[in-house]
TrEMBL record:
NCBIfam families: maturase_GoxB. Gene3D superfamilies: 3.30.9.100, FAD/NAD(P)-binding domain. PROSITE patterns: PROKAR_LIPOPROTEIN. InterPro entries: FAD/NAD-bd_sf, Flavin-dep_Halogenase_NPB. It comes from the Bacteria. The lineage of its organism: Bacteria, Pseudomonadati, Pseudomonadota, Alphaproteobacteria, Rhodospirillales. This is Glycine oxidase maturase GoxB.
């Protein structure tokens, strides 16, 4: 009598991936490469101007290579990130050039182009439904998913890549919130074309928060002001003069904007930028089918870290191997992912504490007092 073969994976329901961003697209690609057909719940991307969040660290390159996506960076829409400057803990502007660092440089991306190219690769490998998840229940070794259009579907496992909303993971594990940082972000265009703008990224601490500015590959300037909700100036998303008043507190970024003739395209939009994480980013209840959270759904980091896109790609990449093993009855891959994520979070926490502790110029500021060790 021959040995009984394992069930064909095509007989199982697909793995559902929730979320149409970077983590979701990467998860679909990784799952397909691991032999786990993905069902992609990805509503159409919101049409909006590119704002902050375009820095891709050098750690993303091996992940893209592992996913067969390294060529995405060859587009002329992206360029190497050559230099960054900061005024933090001092009025002086200090420079850190990529040429002084080991290994290849990171990139400044055309974020919308990068995401569109990534989604196109994923869409070729996944069944894509343009609907949101309404509810989910685990029964009979499958997840039964109810969608926003009223339809139902089944999945053998779930990868939550729905961003900070964590629409699936938050039903199964508490959300831990470290802070409530928010950002007011916009794009500026250069009206005085006689001045060549500096190709760099600047970070500058202010009395009630900090500013971020980066020249994008299309020569627009991405500008964001980060602070706590109760400290964000009223009307900043409506009145251009409110943003102008914030910039008056700046020495270096304000000078860069003025000398290069940058003018905001529109008032800033407000974004959540707080540091959050899901207490348990993988399903540990053996009676339920497997699930895992990746990207911002698992851990959303302070934008100071520039970890966002790299972490999203890493989590999506790990989804393929972890779920392939879990569906064969071995959940150790899920545990290994959770352990690696916890280690990364702990490392980020230490770096974040050191970085904020270095800024001591504003002793009467509630923003900085909340971020300094007791």
């Amino acid at each position: 009598m021959g040995r009984r073969s394992e069930p064909d994976v095509t007989e199982r329901p697909p793995v559902a991936v929730i979320g149409g961003g970077i983590a979701g697209a990467a998860a679909c690609i990784s799952l397909a490469r691991a032999g786990c057909p993905p069902l992609w719940l990805a509503p159409p991307a919101e049409q909006q101007a590119q704002a902050f969040g375009e820095s891709l660290g050098p750690g993303a390159r091996p992940i893209l290579k592992a996913l067969g996506l390294e060529d995405l960076l060859t587009s002329s829409a992206h360029r190497p990130a050559n230099a960054s400057f900061s005024a933090w803990g001092s009025d002086r502007l200090t420079a850190r050039h990529a040429a002084l660092q080991a290994g290849p440089p990171g990139y400044v991306l055309d974020r919308l182009r990068f995401e569109a190219d990534l989604r196109a690769r994923a869409a070729a490998l996944a069944e894509r439904l343009p609907h949101r998840l309404s509810s989910a229940a685990g029964e009979d070794q499958v997840w039964r998913l109810h969608l926003s259009n009223g339809e139902n579907c089944t999945a053998s496992a779930v990868v939550d890549a729905s961003g900070r909303a964590a629409v699936f993971a938050r039903r199964h594990s508490p959300l831990i919130r470290r802070d409530r940082l928010i950002a007011a972000a916009t794009l500026l265009r250069q009206h005085d074309l006689s001045v060549e703008p500096t190709r760099a990224t600047l970070i500058e601490a202010l009395p009630d928060g900090w500013l971020y500015a980066a020249l994008l590959p299309d020569e627009a300037l991405s500008l964001a002001y980060f602070t706590d909700p109760d400290l964000m100036p009223a009307g900043i998303s409506r009145d251009p003069q409110v943003l102008a008043a914030v910039l008056k507190q700046s020495r270096h970024i304000a000078r860069w904007i003025a000398e290069a003739g940058f003018v905001p395209e529109r008032p800033p939009r407000l974004y959540s930028a707080g540091t959050t994480r899901i207490a348990a980013p993988v399903g540990r209840n053996g009676r339920l089918p497997p699930w895992m959270a990746v990207g911002d759904a698992a851990a959303a980091f302070d934008p100071l870290s520039s970890h966002g896109m790299t972490t999203a790609l890493w989590g999506g990449w790990k989804a393929g191997e972890a779920m392939a093993a879990a569906l064969s009855g071995d959940r150790s891959g899920l545990d290994a992912y959770a352990a690696a994520l916890a280690e990364g979070i702990a490392d980020f926490d230490r770096q974040q504490a050191r970085f904020y502790a270095a800024e001591t110029r504003f002793p009467n500021s509630r923003f900085w007092a909340a971020r300094h060790p007791n």
